[in-house]
Structure formats: C-alpha cells, structure tokens
Amino acid sequence: MTLPQSRPQSPAKLRRVNPQGAQRAAALLLALDETAAARLAAALDANELSALTGAMKTLEPLDASELEALIDRFASETAVRLSV
C-alpha cells in the first residue's frame, strides 16, 4: 500500500494567523471551557461583548500551535503587568 504524496501547501495556507485586539480576545475566550467563558462574558459590558462577538465572526481558524502561542503570549504579558 502506498500513501498519497503530500502536496506542498499554497502560500496562503502557510501564512501564520496572528489575531490582534478583539480577535485575540475572542480566540482566548473560545479556548476556555463553557463555564469559564460564560463567567468572563458576564463580566463584560454591552459594548465589550458586542466587539467580542463581532470579532468571533471574523476570526480565522487557529491550529493548536497558533492557539498555544497566543495563550503563552497572553500569559507572559499578564505576568509582566501583574509584576509591576
């Protein structure tokens, strides 16, 4: 049995997704379990929640490594802010 040859990915598929602003927050919120996401969403005001849900609609899919990098970046930035 021979396995199919993998074709090189197109440049568009090789592009790294790098969400910013509300899209970044949306990706982090979507990574949470339902209970944690609901608790966090309940703490947002109407404008923040609207911006976040709008960002969710336009967010491109992230693979596991991109999501991990996003979470690591958030954790690092949060640690720096909390240590000030």
Structural account:
Helices cover 67% and strands 0% of the residues. α2 crosses α4 (46-58). By secondary structure, the protein is mainly alpha-helical. It is built from 5 helices and no strands. The chain is globular, with a radius of gyration of 17 Å. The protein starts with 10 loop residues before the first helix and ends with a helix. It has one domain (20-79).
* C-alpha termini separation: 60 Å
Low-pLDDT runs of 5+ residues are: 1-15
Total number of helical segments? 5
For the CA atoms, what is the radius of gyration?
17 Å
Number of strands: 0
Beta percentage is under 5%
- Write the H/E string, N to C: HHHHH
Whole-number total of structural domains: 1
Q: Helix/strand-derived class?
A: mainly alpha
Average pLDDT, all residues: 82
Shape: globular
Largest sheet: none
Helix content: 55-70%
Gist of the model:
The protein is an all-alpha fold. It contains 5 helices and no strands. Helix 2 (21-31) crosses helix 4.
Q: What is the secondary structure topology, with strand pairs?
A:
Elements: H1 11-14, H2 21-31, H3 34-42, H4 46-58, H5 64-82
Helix pairs in contact: 2-4
Tags for this model:
disordered N terminus; mainly alpha; 84 residues; 67% helix; single chain; 5 helices
